Amino acid sequence: MASERKILFRGGIIVNAGGAYEGDLLVENGKISDTGRNIGQGAGEVVDVSGKFLFPGGIDVHTHLDLPFGGTVSNDDFFTGHMAAAFGGTTSHIDFAIQTPGETLTEAVDRWHEKADGKAVIDYGFHLAVTDFNDAVLAELPTMRKRGITSLKVFMAYKGLFQVSDEDLFQTLRIARDSGMLVMVHAENGDVIDVLVREAHEKGNLAPKYHALTRPPEAEGEATGRAIAVAEMAGAPIYIVHLTCALALNQVRRARSRGLPAYAETCPQYLYKRFEDYELRGFEGAKVVMSPPIRSADNWPHLWQGLADDTLQVVSTDHCPFCFDGQKDLGKDDFSKIPNGAPGIEDRMMVMYHGGVNEGRYDVSRFVEITSANPAKLFGLFPRKGALLPGSDADIVVWDPEKEKTISAKTHHMNVDYSLYEGMKVKGVPVRVYRRGELLVDGDTFHGEKGSGVYLERGVFTPV
Ligand SMILES: [Zn+2]
Questions:
Q1: Is the whole-model pTM more than 0.85?
Q2: Which backbone phi and psi does 380 adopt, to 5 degrees?
Q3: Cα 71 to ligand 1 centre (Å)
Q4: Are strands 425-435 and 396-406 parallel, antiparallel or unpaired?
Q5: SS3 at position 77
Q6: CA of 276 to the centre of ligand 1 (A)
């Protein structure tokens, strides 16, 4: 019933990837039906949004909800993670269905559907992470299109567990190219990392900082360059996930300047956290144990510049929360046993707006492009998602650019006992969040209905 209402958003600044203008926006039956001025006479509900931005709902294309990892499970499921996402202005996400070695791809996707069924509040899709390469699996890959999956992920790290050989990477890229799928790569040199981790163990170097010291930026730079070269030989586009450092960024920049279809995302933590966070008192450093690791702060300006000049097209979170008490401490005596990951699905829009728009690094249109429009295009959701256009889903974030907030684990909605951004003051926050015309969040109140999020069958990617 709720979605059959007509809602008129009156007098806001409507922001799309291409630009921003002052106007009204009309929603009917969960979709945007019109934008302009003096529209929507007789709408049942009028929302005054003067002085506010209207953004298309955020799309986080890199999340790990309910993920078994390192003897535990990431602590947000498809309900708590979705509620937190909505509070942060994110109304769609794409999670990774990860194949357990030995199982078919169909089984992996079925398992992820079970995690989301009945819990979802925002809309969601799946990438498929392939970890076990054999003829049967490679033959099964193209059939994933019928399940609405048009992106694959492979890992060049995690030796002996998930790591792909160059041979399998090449074959996967060719199959993906022929079936209209985009391959995403975790680019770190797993062979080198494996040696460094073993040596750290032998020397008794077991504190959290050794997580970073055994995964140097050169390992990421090398793998990024190799992934792009293998993709070029395969004639396939490629997408580098969670890029962290200047060495890797330069590989993507060089490829794009040659006209190659190479794309990359970074994550907010790589723009705000520094290597020294691993050396904080006690076991605090475990909070930033993730792969690739946090780098030295001299990488930050390069990544911000990459977002501004389109070397980086997307900001995602790699949201994979583990509690400091009870989960991270599995690695109290050995950094290699600390569950890898950190929370962020709720914070992404606010910290990227604050650091990007308020600090003058890019404008609101570019903000929408990297948080919503480009994710929708690259992952086959555009223009249903990622735009405020007639015909698009009415995923609308009413954003108050003047409102301030202090980020804290005490007030966030993610099911985790710490925040990467504890105490950070941001200006510009979502005040109302709609998904397909239904109000999910109004200020501090959650109105979302458990199970109302839908699975997104995705189309092929659009180059950006
Ligand atoms: Zn990830």
A1: yes
A2: 70, 35
A3: 17
A4: antiparallel
A5: coil
A6: 22
Token pair belonging to 110: 């079925």
296-303: long-range contacts, CB 8 A cutoff, minimum separation 24: 298/246, 299/217, 299/244, 299/245, 299/246, 299/270, 300/270, 300/271, 300/272, 302/245, 302/246, 302/249, 303/243, 303/244, 303/245, 303/246, 303/249, 303/266, 303/270, 303/271
| Distance of CA 418 from the midpoint of ligand 1 (Å) | 19
How many angstroms does the Cα of residue 318 sit away from the middle of ligand 1? 5
The tens place of each residue's pLDDT in the chain, 464 residues long, gives 444 689 999 999 999 999 999 999 999 999 999 999 989 888 889 999 999 999 999 999 999 999 999 899 999 999 999 999 999 999 999 999 999 999 999 999 999 999 999 999 999 999 999 999 999 999 999 999 999 999 999 999 999 999 999 999 999 999 999 999 999 999 999 999 999 999 999 999 999 999 999 999 999 999 999 999 999 999 999 999 999 999 999 999 999 999 999 999 999 999 999 999 999 999 999 999 999 999 999 999 999 999 999 999 999 999 999 999 999 999 999 999 999 999 999 999 999 999 999 999 999 999 999 999 999 999 999 999 999 999 999 999 999 999 999 999 999 999 999 999 999 999 999 999 999 999 999 999 999 999 999 999 999 988 99
- HSE of 183, CA atoms in CB hemisphere, 13 A: 33
Report residue 87 as tokens.
């509070």
2-55+386-446 and 57-378: identical CATH topology: no
For domain 2-55+386-446, give the CATH number: 2.30.40.10
Q: Where are the domains of the chain?
A: 2-55+386-446, 57-378
Going from the Cα of 459 to the center of ligand 1, the distance in angstroms, rounded, reads 22
CA of 361 to the centre of ligand 1 (A): 26
CA of 64 from ligand 1 middle (Å) equals 6
CATH architecture of 57-378: Alpha-Beta Barrel (3.20)
